[in-house]
Amino acid sequence: MIKVCGIDDVILSCTNSSRMGCAGYVIRMGNDQIPKRLTMGKPDGTRSQGRPKKRWLDSINAYMNAIGVRNWREVAIRREEWRKTQWVFCRVVGTTTHTGL
């Protein structure tokens, strides 16, 4: 879809880096905060039959697996370490769009 739309890889990696920044922010929120409950919670009930929908957390897990981070939620709690992880991710995907360091 991205190639069909003509979106450049740099824009995509910048978006991915922003998602990671948002993930760190949400992880550091209190458990009673609505954004955390919506993104980290698991809804009750069942879904319709077919392929499972890709969730926001699925993409974050995929990014972290790509750079070898298995305990990303623990890393995200420590803000400076999370920023370094974002920087590593940007280096792995071949761009330097993350300016947090």
Which regions contain 5 or more consecutive residues with pLDDT less than 50?
Answer: none
Mean pLDDT across the residues is 78
N/C terminus separation: 32 Å
The fraction of residues in strands falls at: under 5%
Elements, N to C (H/E): HHHHHH
Approximate helicity band: 55-70%
Structural class, from helix and strand content? mainly alpha
The number of helical runs is 6
Give a summary of the structure in a few sentences:
This protein has 101 residues and is mainly alpha-helical. Helices cover 60% and strands 0% of the residues.
Descriptive account of the structure:
By secondary structure, this protein is mostly helical. The protein has a domain at 2-33 and 55-92. The protein has helices at residues 2-5, 9-27, 34-40, 56-66, 72-77, 79-92. Helix 2 (9-27) runs antiparallel to helix 6. The radius of gyration is 15 Å and the shape is globular.
Task: Offer a few descriptive terms.
101 residues, mainly alpha, 6 helices, globular
